[in-house]
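Section 4.2 – Deliverable D4.2 (structural model, holo form)

The reporting period included a commitment to supply a predicted holo structure for the target in complex with FE2/S2 (inorganic) cluster. Inputs used:
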Amino acid sequence: MNEALLNYLLDKLRRFGVSSSNQLSHVTTYTRELPISLDRMYENAIDGEHLPYLHSSTFSYIDILESGPWGWRAKAGLHPRSKLTDMEIKLVLNKDEFCWKTTTLSGLGKGTEIWTHAIPLGENRIKVIVDFYVPKLPAILKDFYAEYYIATYEKLYDEDLMMMSQRQQALDFKKASTNKENAATLALGNEKEIRSQLPFTFEFKQHRFVINESNGELVVYSAMCPHMLSPLENETLDNGVVECPWHAYRFDVKTGECVSGQSCRLKTPPALSIDPDTQQVVVKELS
Ligand code: FES
Ligand SMILES: [Fe+2]
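Output (structure tokens):
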């Protein structure tokens, strides 16, 4: 059976069927230690925009209706996209209580509450404890819901951990390179060698850049997304446009312009030249 239809039918059964109780039932608890700071975790929780991109196998879309440091409220749907899985969700962060509450306001799973507590265990170590509460849950469905939530959250946190770790690395890199002296030019090696190592990343003037190929031509552009520093080097170029894997902002790598409409642009890269005699590839700061 189609997964969207199955989710929808189970939800209908829960809401209008068997159970006589309006009480929220505690379905299960998911716990996990993560080698990440509380700041990264909070940042991730209030970033609803990443759901359909980083978690594309779980969510099909999100339309953010309001957002801020307090959290967000949005219309969203599960993957694969179907009207049957449309829902409105609200996430509210409470740093005083080290937790955030995610409530389904309408649509699939209406009334569900997911409470996440993040307990700091060290500078870069936290434990997340996620409790799932579903209203009007017949006993017969409890195990099914528990398995679904545990499997889904295991996958979501695998993906979130990758994003949070990469972001922390990028922030650490920027902090560490602030005082570094850099020459105005940098020789990167022979063109043939570079072409054999594409995408070729390098550091220049406190930033990471990448050399890639677009329509047979070598192009150099920022390997760090200007939005939240996602790595861009491994994303394929589509007619000179790179799409960020975290929130799908799209950039023209030659001009740096954000072609998906957000108000940010890629950092200007150094100029790339190839010596016609030696085939040495050199990058040079633009004056
Ligand atoms: S980090 Fe958000 S679009 Fe790139
Ligand atoms: Fe996430």
